[in-house]
Specification:
The protein is of the alpha+beta class and 287 residues long. It has helices spanning 4-18, 41-45, 156-163, 170-175, 185-194, 211-227; strands spanning 23-28, 54-56, 59-63, 68-73, 79-83, 105-111, 116-120, 127-132, 270-274, 277-281. The protein is elongated and about 60 Å long.
Length: 287
């Protein structure tokens, strides 16, 4: 599942061709993705102008001049490809390009400026919807979300409230979208390792003085991942079809059996299944 940095990479890739663009034509090649497309999807988008491109957690939001917001979620294999008169848009430095199959081209957006943005999704776990802009924050997808981890609203105080008296491990609470929006398994593992905090011990027992370094680690990991276009796991690709490469900077994720990279630590990276997901950590320096 693409995480926040991957979705932000896609948003940045789409922004130059979609932000402020008028949609001259929209084509839906099937009536549904993960969920049915909303009634009048093509008609409501055709001729509309996209005011800007936002991101909320792992959703891309495109407010329209007609009062609706186009909400897009990539699911597991959803991706966009951009074809513009001036060539492909690259949101970062990437080494490889993946060519999608035409049979998986489900939604096509054509702008008055001549750009074509195609949404591909082989497994159709992604989805799109149109929600009245004034109702977005109250919609069930967004109403209970916590603050954005890269925003000013996320700090040590956020975690102090979320962790207080909780018996669950810090990783479990950080993956809860009510605590903080958009964090996923990869980057929580990385941030907990950088801050030396165990994923398993009760969150309520984490000293307050350690919460500042944890929030700093979360912001740093996400920022670094966005800068290099995210991490490519299986099918994820950025808006220009290129693959992200933050995985080359992983300190613990998917590095079971390797020496811990923390200076002076003699530990070996371990893996345990936690709430159905793989948790990678150092049993020596994460306490």
């Amino acid at each position: 599942m693409p995480e926040l940095p991957e979705v932000e990479t896609v948003r940045r890739g789409l922004e130059p061709v979609l932000s402020g663009a008028r949609l001259a034509r929209v084509r839906a090649n099937r009536p549904d993705l993960r969920f049915p497309l909303p009634d009048g999807f093509v008609q409501r988008l055709s001729g509309a102008t996209i005011l800007r491109l936002d991101r909320r957690a792992k959703y891309i939001l495109a407010p329209l001049d007609r009062g609706d917001t186009l909400v897009m979620h990539l699911g597991m294999t959803g991706r966009f490809e951009i074809a513009a008169p001036e060539g492909s848009i690259r949101p970062g430095d990437f080494a490889r390009v993946v060519t999608p199959e035409d049979k998986h081209a489900h939604v096509v957006f054509e702008t008055e400026a001549g750009a074509t943005v195609t949404y591909y999704d082989p497994r159709r776990f992604g989805f799109m919807d149109l929600i009245p802009t004034e109702d977005v924050d109250r919609h069930p997808w967004f109403s209970t979300m916590g603050p954005e981890p890269l925003g000013e609203g996320f700090d040590a105080g956020t975690l102090e409230k979320a962790f207080a008296n909780r018996k669950q491990g810090p990783k479990t609470l950080l993956l809860d979208q009510r605590t903080v929006a958009g964090l996923g398994n990869i980057y929580v593992c990385e941030a907990l390792h950088r801050s030396g905090i165990s994923p398993f011990k009760p969150a309520g027992g984490v000293a307050k003085k350690r919460l500042g370094p944890l929030t700093t680690a979360i912001k740093a990991v996400l920022t670094e991942a966005v800068e290099v276009g995210g991490s490519t796991l299986k099918d994820f690709a950025a808006a220009d079809g290129a693959l992200g490469y933050f995985q080359h900077r992983f300190r613990v994720y998917d590095r079971e059996g390797e020496p811990c990279p923390t200076p002076g630590c003699k530990g070996v990276i371990a893996r345990e299944v936690q709430a159905g997901r793989s948790t990678f950590f150092c049993p020596v320096c994460q306490v």
